[in-house]
Amino acid sequence: MKSIENLIQTYWEEIIEARKFLHQHPEDRYVEFETQRCIINFLEKNGIKYETNIYETAIIAYINGEYSGKTIAFRADMDALPLKEDTECEFKSLNNGYMHACGHDAHMAIMLGTAVILNKMKNKINGNIKIIFQPAEEQGIEGGAKGLIKAGVLNNVDSIFAAHVWPDLPVGQIAIGNNEMMASCDLIKIKIKGKSGHIGLPHQCINPVYVASQFLNTVAGIRMHYIDPFENLVWNFGIFKPDTFMGNAIPSEIFLSGSARTYNNELRTYIKQKCKNILEGFKLIYDIDYEYNYHWGYAPVINDYETSIFFRACAAEVLGEKNVIVPSKAVMTSEDFGEYLKEIKGSFAWLGAGEDEKVKYPLHNSKFLVPEKTIENGIKIFTNLALKYLG
């Protein structure tokens, strides 16, 4: 561990310089061009092999040990969020309206640091490491993981690992579950078509507002009475938008958009069909028409049991056993790392990024900023993991 710490100290200024640039230049999905340039410059400066022509703006860095063996992969996401940054840091976003509110700048910095240190320790590695810098994790439906998998990024990879910074955990801790970590994410879009008219003549109209409200009530009733209450499920709608906003007129259409999140793929199929059944029933009852799209999004993040035990053991050597946690429950937020875990064994972690218990900003908040100590901890953990796996 001492040799890892010494190398981190040697390259720390360069790692943090890259992190600050990445934080200052947040970019939307699939247009991470400045981000890509920063990563390439870092890799080239340190003599690390890489590939850029595999998928969109993705970069794959390669660390090949002196001896043959297995291949593991690490993943860092690259894209930012359309939020205006409201932190006081000296390296705040220069791309107005975008910021790294999900900590992807820290994820990339962790993997750049891990790459440069492992590249200096090739003589201790029996095998190969792929470090995947992935675009478009925040996409929600067709994220970058699916595209990279189709392009063959997991070919010959035995296991894959990643971590997400987590402000609900204090700096110096990490949480690695044995199975369920983050939920699936499917997008539901519905347009209910009625007949517009004067609000004082409702009998001459078909009111889509009423039908849409009945749809939402029916969804809530199905969740309450027909689905196991112990199922982890969010089936909810956040957009309810008519095509007109006149107080004395019934609109002709209502647009609904929502999400279904679960760990149960059978339940995803059930929800998709139930939405269709409700709409078909309302078409007969209320004489409406409708458009309906159910988009299968990210798979749930479900860790491999044995791989997670190994991941925790490696993390414990860095942080101490008491600071390595098995989460008591999964969460209903989503991550496209689950797409990789559908294909090969792997494990996903939450890396502590909370500094102040009194003032805690969540992910996707305009004031969220990852502490540098979290980056250092991440580098130590992933470097140690690679050396143990391929030692």
From TrEMBL:
Protein name per its UniProtKB record: Amidohydrolase
Record keyword Transmembrane helix present: no
InterPro entries: Amidohydrolase (IPR017439), Bact_exopeptidase_dim_dom (IPR036264), Peptidase_M20 (IPR002933), Peptidase_M20_dimer (IPR011650)
Cofactor: Mn(2+)
Record flagged with keyword Transmembrane: no
N-terminal signal peptide: none
Residues binding Mn(2+), per UniProt: C102, H104, E138, H164, H364
Residue ranges occupied by any Peptidase M20 dimerisation domain in the UniProt entry: 189-280
Cofactor binding remark: The Mn(2+) ion enhances activity.
Record keywords, A-Z: Hydrolase, Manganese, Metal-binding
